[in-house]
Design a protein that fits this description.
Strand order of the largest sheet: 7-6-5-8-9
Helix content: under 10%
Structural class: mainly beta
CATH topology of the largest domain: OB fold (Dihydrolipoamide Acetyltransferase, E2P)
CATH architecture of the largest domain: Beta Barrel
Shape: elongated
Largest sheet: 5 strands, antiparallel
Strand content: 35-45%
Order of helices and strands: EEHEEEEEEE
Radius of gyration: 17 Å
Number of strands: 9
CATH class of the largest domain: Mainly Beta
């Protein structure tokens, strides 16, 4: 018997803790981040769906060094901080913040640098 993995989210106004089955969120659990706000729909006290934004900002953990002399159509592999791999333009370097389309799992543009 396989155990269902549970996630614990909280309601931002009341700070009430809510238990949600990871299967409700699916593969996008990899993109959950502290402080992220996602609407969760409930029916009779059970979470049935969660809505992620169309695009999010993520940090590139590892990629080949930037190359500025290559044609823009040549993309390279990059691993994000959540271990998801995507293709990025040649100018992207490790540590860069990028905007990612969640539905297409594709690089969109450079993101805004996160302040620490």
């Amino acid at each position: 018997m396989q155990r269902r993995r549970q996630l614990f989210l909280h309601e931002p106004q009341s700070y009430e803790q809510v238990e949600v089955c990871a299967a409700v969120i699916g593969e996008q659990t990899k993109f959950l981040d502290t402080g992220m706000r996602i609407p969760v729909e409930f029916v009779e006290g059970q979470a049935i769906s969660a809505v992620f934004p169309d695009c999010i900002e993520m940090t590139v953990a590892e990629t080949a060094p930037p190359s500025h002399g290559q044609v823009d159509s040549t993309w390279k592999s990059a691993r994000l901080i959540n271990d998801v791999e995507i293709m990025v333009p040649p100018f992207v370097k490790s540590g860069d913040v990028i905007r990612l389309s969640l539905s297409a799992m594709k690089y969109m543009e450079r993101g805004k640098a996160k302040s620490g």
